[in-house]
């Protein structure tokens, strides 16, 4: 049954994308840029509904009160394609730094360009970074939110952290808060996998890290806050979904965390 539900959802996901892009193109491109966010966010909410209705996968968002006003960097844990789009309805006016080639895709690229994303030529990163940084600063001055994944790519659930230093550079150069976000989507929408599993994806917006810290201290706080919260969400997810198949790395991480908690409890205060 899980294979059938996964196939139906994947089909519905891409059909929804294509159909909504076609139907909403005229109003999308006629609307003012910021107002036009209603259409991509509606598409995301449609996907949330489809995932819940077909697969039985819901999501819960915690910590919305921690979201600051104005421009800031949002730094989610990246385990799944779900967290590449799933947070958009909870943000005011987000943007990404993305591969320039994505803007060349017919229709999709036009949608992306409308939202003033920041394209980058990955083949000559050092040469273009000053221009990218300048574009990003202008977006921040408009009160927008930069979505950046500190580990750079999707990581398996339970894998050792592999945070890249680039976010520390952006944190220092942009002089804005960074909001860590713990997400456990990879258990229910695994990376590079066809299957989708029922359960509840929990998202936790953590307290922002205010600007001005030395890079090393910033990185330490970012990693500690994010990974501590992700571990908590992992333990809860496994306990609440006893039939959920765990990837090997996630299983080892869960067993290590629960063993550590058991030892701490036995040791007492």
TrEMBL record:
**Which GO molecular function terms does the record list?**
acyltransferase activity
Q: So which domain of life are we looking at?
A: Bacteria
Domain Phospholipid/glycerol acyltransferase: residue ranges: 72-186
Q: Which residues cross the membrane?
A: 12-31
SUPFAM superfamilies for this protein: Glycerol-3-phosphate (1)-acyltransferase (SSF69593)
Q: Which UniProt keywords apply?
A: Acyltransferase, Membrane, Transferase, Transmembrane, Transmembrane helix
InterPro entries membership: Plipid/glycerol_acylTrfase (IPR002123)
Please tell me whether the keyword Transmembrane helix is annotated for this protein: yes
Involved pathway(s):
Lipid metabolism
What is this protein's name? 1-acyl-sn-glycerol-3-phosphate acyltransferase
What is the scientific name of the source organism? Hoeflea poritis
């Amino acid at each position: 049954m899980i294979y059938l539900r996964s196939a139906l959802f994947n089909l519905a996901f891409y059909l929804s994308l294509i159909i909504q892009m076609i139907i909403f193109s005229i109003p999308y491109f006629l609307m003012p840029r910021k107002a036009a966010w209603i259409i991509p966010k509606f598409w995301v909410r449609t996907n949330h509904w489809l995932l819940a209705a077909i697969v039985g996968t819901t999501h819960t968002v915690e910590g919305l009160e921690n979201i600051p006003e104005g421009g800031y960097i949002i730094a989610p844990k990246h385990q799944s394609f779900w967290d590449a789009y799933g947070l958009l309805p909870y943000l005011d006016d987000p943007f990404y730094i993305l591969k320039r080639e994505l803007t060349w895709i017919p229709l999709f690229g036009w949608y992306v360009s409308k939202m003033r994303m920041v394209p980058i030529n990955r083949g000559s990163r050092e040469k273009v970074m000053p221009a990218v940084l300048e574009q990003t600063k202008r977006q921040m001055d408009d009160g927008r939110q930069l979505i950046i994944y500190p580990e750079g790519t999707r990581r398996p659930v339970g894998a050792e952290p592999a945070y890249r230093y680039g976010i520390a550079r952006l944190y220092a150069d942009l002089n804005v808060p960074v909001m860590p976000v713990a997400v456990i989507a990879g258990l229910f929408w695994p990376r590079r996998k066809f299957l989708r599993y029922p359960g509840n994806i929990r998202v936790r917006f953590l307290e922002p890290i205010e600007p001005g810290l030395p890079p090393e201290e910033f990185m330490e706080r970012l990693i500690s806050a994010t990974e501590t919260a992700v571990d908590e969400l992992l333990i809860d997810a496994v306990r609440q979904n006893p039939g959920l198949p765990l990837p090997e790395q996630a299983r080892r991480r869960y067993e290590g965390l629960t063993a550590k908690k058991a030892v701490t409890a036995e040791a007492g205060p």
